[in-house]
Each structure stands twice: as C-alpha cells, then as structure tokens.
Amino acid sequence: MFEAVNNFLQHVDDLVWGVPLIVAILLTGIYLTIRLKGIQITKLPKALKYMFENEESGHGEVTSFGALCTALSATIGTGNIVGVATAIVAGGPGALFWMEIAALFGMATKYSEGLLAIKYRTTDKHGHILGGPFYYIENGMGKKWTWLAKIFAFFGMGVGLFGIGTFTQVNGITSAVGNFFDPNAQNVIHLLGRDYTLAVVISGLILTVCVGLVVIGGLKRIAKVSEIIVPFMAVIYIAISLLLLILNANKIPAAIVEIVSSAFGMRAAAGGALGAIIVAMQKGIARGIFSNEAGLGSAPIAAAAAQTKEPARQGLVTMTGTFIDTIVVCTMTGLSIVLTGSWNIGLEGVAVTTNAFQQGLPFAPQISAFLLMMCLVFFAFTTILGWDYYSERCLEYLTNGHKKTILTYRWLYILAVFIGPYMTVSAVWTIADIFNGLMAIPNMIALFALSGVIVKETKAFFVAEKHKM
Questions:
Q1: DSSP assignment, residue 269?
Q2: What share of the chain is helix, strand, coil (3-state, %, to 5)?
Q3: How far apart are CA 272 and CA 162, in angstroms?
Q4: Distance between CA atoms of 435 and 364, rounded to whole angstroms?
Q5: What is the mean pLDDT of residues 57-68?
Q6: Which long-range CB contacts under 8 A does 12-21 form with residues at least 24 apart?
Q7: pTM to 2 decimals?
Q8: 284-327 residue pLDDT tens
C-alpha cells in the first residue's frame, strides 16, 4: 500500500517538476534580473541596510523587519538542513551549485514579489491589510484574471496544509528528536501498522500543543514569536557552521571543485553526463525553491503587512530573505556535507547533516547532534507558524474572510501537525514538491505580466532616492 502511494506520488512529482517548470522558474529570475539590471547584486548593500531600518511613517500591521522575520520563519526550516542533504544525496554535490544559481536569480524574483505585494495590497472594512499574489493578480492584471488568483490561493493553502507548512517540518523535527534520544529505537509504540519510538510520539504531541497555542493567536503573535526565535537561531546555526568550515578550511577548495564538476556532469560515466546534469539541476532547483520559496509567491503575503509606503523599498527587504536563506545558510550546510563526505555513505535526511556536524566539529558527537537537533527544531517550528499565516491568507481570499471557515482551518492545520510524524519521509517531501510546483505557475504568470510595473516603480524609487541625497 505504502509503496503504491509513493510510486504514484513520485510519478506526479516527476511531471510537475520536469524540465519545463525548472526552465520556467530560472527564466523568470533571469528575465527579471535583466530588466532590473542585476538589482540583486548592485543594490544588495542597500537592501541589507533597509532590513534593519524600519520606516517611521509607513502604514501596515507589522514592521518591515517583522514582515521579513515572518517570511524568514517560513523559509528557514528543514529545507536548509534536511532539504539540502536530500538534494545532495539524490543529485550529487552539483545539486548545491544549481541551488545557488536558482537563488541568485531568485533574488530578483523575490524583489519583484515584495514590490507588487505593497503596490497592490488592499485594506478591508475592519482595517485589516490584505496582500499577496492573489491581490496583485486581481488588482494588477484585472478582474478577468480572478480565476488565476483563486488557483494560486488554492494551491497556496495546499502547500501550507500538506506541504512545506506541516508534514515536512513536523517530520523533520520528530525524526531529529527521535534520532537523538533513541537512535536504536529501543522504546517503541505500534501505531497505524508501524513502529514509532516514544521520543517521536512525545515530541509530536508537544509540538502540536505549542503550535496550537501560537496559531490561535493570529498574525501578530506569529510575527512576535518569529522576531525573537528566527534571528537568534539563525545566528547560532551560522556560527556553528562557520566554526565547522574554519576548522576544515583546507578541505573547502576540493569540495568546491567537486560541487562544480558534479554540477556539469564531469564525474559521470561516458554518455551519462547530460543525465547527471539534469538530475543535479532538478534536485538542486526543486530543493532551492523549497528552501527560499522564490517564485512561489509566499513571501509577498507576509510583505504586504509591512509598515511601509514604498513598494520598491519593501521589495529590497524581501529580497534579502533569499540571500540569507540560500546564499548564506544553505551554502554552509551544503559545504559541510560535501567536505565531510557525508552525502555518499548510505544515510538520508537529517542523518546526513548530523553526520557532517559530528565529523567536522571539535565537540563530542552527542553535543554536535544536540546542537543540530535544536536548530532544526526551532527553524521548523517557526516555519510551521509562518505557513499557517500564509495558508490562512489564501483561505481568507477564497472565502472573503469567513471567520468560521478560517477557525476550522486552524484546527485542521493543528491536526496536520499532529499526524505529521507518522507520514513516510519520501512521501512527505514528494507531496511538498508537487504543491510547490503547482503554486509557482500562477505567480510566475503574474510576474511576467506585471514586469513593466515592477521596472517603472523601481526606476521611480531610485530617482527619488537620488534627489533626497
């Protein structure tokens, strides 16, 4: 039964995440990069500066930094620790290279999403700010495109409930806790025809309660929790990863050579180079999109609530999310895995990254495993919160803010967190990939259609900036 379901899901995943979608996502980023004259490189210092400078006179529900942290809470998660490992195991070290390429062009995509979110956001009769791809599709492209906005909202809700938001994060947390506290599965409980360790069951229950307590509080509570946890855990994870890379600096050049050669199929057997490149691209880009969400249209849902009056300014702040998530955090994880050789010794999921940390850090293996487990737990926890916010906004759009439906959805979301530990690892990631791909399609159509607006707003903003100086 499980095998049949996995095979079906894999077939659907291969159709969704085939070469056409990979090319479309890359082309969207390349196209916007050209039209915006490489804004992700030329304006990155300004973007990082704006990240910490909140606008005093801006109109919105949370600060720009709070909106970024809400977006980062949804992006920095298992994708950075488990997803990178999964991509490298499946696609070879070259998957990391294609992850970086996708992120570089994805920064232009993320900038555009953040700009449009502010440009076309609306306020309801209760003073509640609403924004995201469904609004820039409807308000920017016109009412006749409302059907496309609804398709996006439907898939966005699915990503939250069945994909990035619940199953993958919960599975990552409980697997990490289970591997740490009971690696030999000595204390097991028989559930749903399978054995699960007591650590997995208990951690799943605790997580469900914690998520429930925050989710019922709505956006402001999610933003408040994210502003505290995200920067704190990101700094700790980056510090640990930097220590590993510094202590193994002599292995970095060889790791980089391996990553680049693998990316272009140089290590493949004769005749298999093209196949190796396609697999590396597919796994790298799919996991990269899963991690930083550029092109998915999720980040603009959070960006729309930012206290700002300048669409381009928030676009720059939103863009830094991809830089931090993939260019910084995923690169560190990937390099750690490649230089320690943890990717090709028969491990999978979080065990790959755990092994890399145990080999590369000067601590006892248990301490390294504990540090990684804690980072993963908090990253994944905030991702669950961020995606509840995203998927609720999608549902609000579909139901015109019907309160009972939204409250019911919150309980369904909590239920999905509850059953998450008992989903198989491969099925979980495959479901997430499918919804990711389907969600990206309406958003990319909108980005192409509104690219002229993006360029015009960008030019106007930087002209005004020059006059201020």
A1: P
A2: 80, 5, 20
A3: 35
A4: 39
A5: 68
A6: 12/430, 12/434, 13/430, 13/433, 13/434, 16/433, 16/434, 16/437, 16/438, 17/282, 17/286, 17/433, 17/434, 17/437, 19/278, 19/282, 21/437, 21/440, 21/441
A7: 0.85
A8: 877 777 677 788 888 888 888 888 888 998 899 889 888 988 88
